[in-house]
Amino acid sequence: NYGRWLEVDLGGRTRITAVATQGRYGSSDWQTSYLLMFSDTGHNWRQYRQEGSIEAFLGNSNADSVVQHKLQHPVIARYVRLIPLDWNPNGRIGLRLETYGCPYNSDVVSFSGLSSLLYRLTPRPTQTSGESISLKFKALKNSGILLHAEGQNQHRLTLELEDGKLLLLTLSPDNQHLVSLSSLLDDQHWHHVAVEHHNNHLNLTVDKSTVWVQIPARFSHWDHDQVSVGAEQGIGSQRAKRNFHGCLENLVYNGLNLVDLAEQKDQRVSGNVTFSCDEPVFVAMTFAGPQSFLWLPGGTDPSSVGLSVGLQFRTWNKAGLLLTFDLLKQSGAVWWYLSKARLHLQIHKPGRAPLELSTGSGLNDGQWHSVDLVSGRGHLTITVDGDESTAAHVSPSFPIIAGGQLFFGGCPSESSGQECMNPFKAFQGCMRLLTVDNQPVDLIKVQQRLMGNYSHLQIDMCDIIDRCSPSHCEHEGSCSQSWTTFHCNCSGSGYTGATCHSSIYEQSCEAYKLNGNTSGFYHIDVDGSGPVRPQLVYCDMTEHQTWTVIQHNNSDLTRVRASPGGNQYSAHFEYASDEDQLAAIIGQSEHCEQELTYHCRKSRILNSAEGSPVSWWVGGPGGGHVQTYWGGASAGSQRCGCSLQQNCVDPKHHCNCDADRNEWSSDSGLLTHKETLPVRSLVLGDVQRSGSESAYKVGPLRCLNVTLFRKLCQKNIWNAAFFDKETSYLHFPTFHGELSADISFLFKTTSSSGVFLENLGIKDFIRIELSSSTEVLFSFDVGNGPLGVSVKADFPLNDDRWHRVQAERNVKEASLRIDELPVATQEAPADGHIHLQLNSQLFIGGTASRQKGFRGCIRSLQLNGVTLDLEERANITPGVRPGCPGHCSTYGSLCQNQGQCVDGTRSFSCDCSGSPHSGAFCHREVSASFKPGTSVSFKDLNVWPSSSLRAENICLSFRTSQSPALLLYISSDHRESLALLLNKQGHNSDSLHSKEKLLDFSEPGGAQKYKDFNPFYEAFLSLFFADSDDLDPELSRLASLGFTGCLSSVLFNSISPLKAALLHPNSSSVSITGSLVQYSCGSTSTNQNAAETTHHLSVGTGQPLVNAIRSDSALIGGGIAVVIFVTLSALAVMARFLYRRKGSSQSQEGKTVKPEDGPELPFSSQTSSQNGPTENQKEYFI
């Protein structure tokens, strides 16, 4: 039956490397699967685990063949226990066992918690190429000093056990480093520790985990004078620390066996220890699941006056039943349990209110905690960890005496017939040192069924696992756990998912643009799920380009003032992004640039009598390197841009400023050599001479993935391949996603099925496929058997439109998402294999068998944040073509305001030529502020042939406080014209002039009377806004008043005259009179009571202009004068406030590079429109 085992005593500690099994000779008895357990003492067993999971070994298939298993990690133990899990159903358990290994010898020393050893390293050991410390320890207590070393250079190193974790502390006079590794190291099993010194860092290893610790570079050697073991000794001891209680073996310091020295009674060693490992026997038991319980007989003596129960437990769960029993003569029930990580006691007695007690906190931390329940003589107490100060007391009016049975951890099933009720969760964890009425409970007798009873218990072992050490939560997500699983809190990390693996941000500004976003500040994560953290950048999105802009602490034009006594002026620039973020953006961009401008008067840049540069700048990765070329010149040329353009003010010099003239000059341009960016600092040397004046400007770093003049960058969101045959595929190197794997891509197809991606291992695999026209399947195997998760859409996925697939597999779960559909998940098996082990090539668009291939397009394929270059492989692969057209069918709706989507092989764009708006998606209104006397005329003699014109449409928005006013005037060469007026009563008036008669529709409901009007206009000659010299006399009086206010998004059919005037003012079709200033009108007024409100007019919707009548309201009243007075008063107060705020702001920014105070320079300071959200980059409009 189950629960049997075969135990072997090897006679001494042995290094076990393999086991082999065989069935019973000449029988039908053999086992088909089994577990292995190991022990040093015959108690406190440990199950063999591989990859953190319990490893079940395959047994035999007959009685004669030998099946051998080599252990992935050799085990050092004296005792081996084999536990059969399954056997031949036609026989019984039959077994012959053989172990393979070799004797293990060690030097062991035992510390009692009071003893220690002190080694004086005089003379010091010979220096070796690498310094190291290695040892093994077995701890009986969860805290204590393992080793402390110090020397004359005041550098100290301490290895300390604290709450079951190993701490490494390196201490020097100017800094210290503390690192923690592993946990549950007080489990009374041997653990290996190694510290290796390599130049400026240490490697700390505990068992199979290693961390890297930075230390000062000047400590090239340790130079320790003494090493204390088991306690901290020496003049550097500053606080009382707990001594180590347990055993050490094979303690080696720089090749010197310190335990052997102590055993040989070397004169350099002092201390009192024993050279063996004496340890008490603690028999623990593991409550592994909700069916686990232990039943013990309770007191039956009626004369008893009380009860005492004590135990130790450790768990990760916040809740669970520790003990329950019925009161004597079934007069009530008692429950002793954990809830919210506190200890609680409830006593229910019929006819009385429940009695409740609670104490303790944080009892689910995985540490051993002792709890005691004592009742007697009218007093009841529960205590945690022997702390009487926090004990909970009560004086019940009835005796607390147990009936016949005590149930620990849970209750038997109802079918057992035993009377036990548990209204709480069952306990999952470990217990030991049980006492009942001050008598210890012999759990070995319980295991042998000589006392009490149990179910689903693992006796003589504590099988607790720390699922958060090492933590599988990535990107600094915090890990918490229960007995069966762990949870990652990703709040504030910028990542999401079960293990905080997937970034919540897009990888580039281009990706935000594709989602329909416009210019602004965005977080981007350049490597997706990689190690580089997200960063805040400005995305400058234009119609054809998308710039990533990274700010630094001073992009303003800055006046140079040399410091007294100094010959140079220096400025340092701190960027909003970290070093790894800068490197990632620059490395992944096709083009980067940074403006560098120097305005000068008698201040040279490069020219000096000695021939060396007077000024220079430092740029590039890390600390950067000195650069002596200037903006607009090539790297390493030691020139300025004017030299390459051959237009320097003095041909004898390579920079304008090197002419050393008394007039203002400048050298400016863009730095475009990526290897020298970003600019880190600027040093100006010619600033102290009499009459020298200068100013500089270093713009933000701007990087671009796509340019208009070069081929699209190969690795971005548009990288695509078209598979035109089911047998075609692309192959790449093996995908490595052992613990975490995220895959994302877009596809479009007309086929109903096909494999997108496949990678195989010996047994493991990973595959994503279109299983039907509405379903995508993500399947894999990491050694636990094939698993899959699928998403079924309620719309066809083979509609030849782009669809996004996002798949992730980690140690906790697998997930799949299609477009914006809900995420589907599949939990990983508990205590199963976790490593995905692949070894074949990665196939894209097909499989190794060339079956079930995919036909269609795959784009932007990313594996763990790395974009695969599909186009490069497609160029050399038959049956696959690079690129994939047809983007407008999916993204055409992003083009707004009559913008037209233009499809490309590798991208799409919005053509705004027929829209009054501009921007990447024709979303940005083009508007201008009109002052008295301002007018714009647009003339085009060849707009349309007369035969094609059937209707006209006019759209515009305006904001004004003026009435009456002329908004729009249109005329033709046939003296046909139209004027859009705002009359005095606040109505919009459409006034139309025909060849024969003026028709005025200003009156609501006015008769529409016209005669012989030709609705088919010839080519329009002019379009006027505000003042017009060609108006009918009846309109001249109103037109003479002009228009004062803001006009926006003016469109006449497909002509955008205001847009042409603002964006192309030098065009021959545009004529501007007066001052025309580009200004944002805004779609609505921010103040509901404002005198100016933006109005949107749309005249004509497909009918000829002669039938158009439009009337809209404007909020104009007699209080305009009052509003103007209030506005001017508010502006005066604001100006004074901003003046004071500016002075205050500048005085508080002593640590940043800032513009110097001084006389106004004869050139303007252009502030970048992408200033970050920092105090010294705010804009004010007055």
Automatic annotation (TrEMBL):
InterPro entries: ConA-like_dom_sf, EGF, EGF-type_Asp/Asn_hydroxyl_site, FA58C, Fibrinogen-like_C, Fibrinogen_a/b/g_C_dom, Galactose-bd-like_sf, Laminin_G
Protein name, per record: Contactin associated protein like 3
Location of the Laminin G domain: 108-277, 283-462, 719-884
One of the Pfam families matching this protein, by short name: F5_F8_type_C
Superkingdom of the source species: Eukaryota
Location(s), subcellular: Membrane
Disulfide bonds: C857-C884
Start and end residues of each Fibrinogen C-terminal domain: 500-552
Membrane topology designation: Single-pass type I membrane protein
Comp. bias intervals (Polar residues): 1163-1175
Boundaries of every F5/8 type C domain copy: 1-102
Keywords from the UniProt entry: Disulfide bond, EGF-like domain, Membrane, Repeat, Signal, Transmembrane, Transmembrane helix
Transmembrane region(s): 1114-1139
Residue ranges of the region described as Disordered: 1143-1182
Family under the similarity heading: Belongs to the neurexin family.
Listed GO CC annotations: membrane
Residues covered by the EGF-like domain: 464-501, 885-923
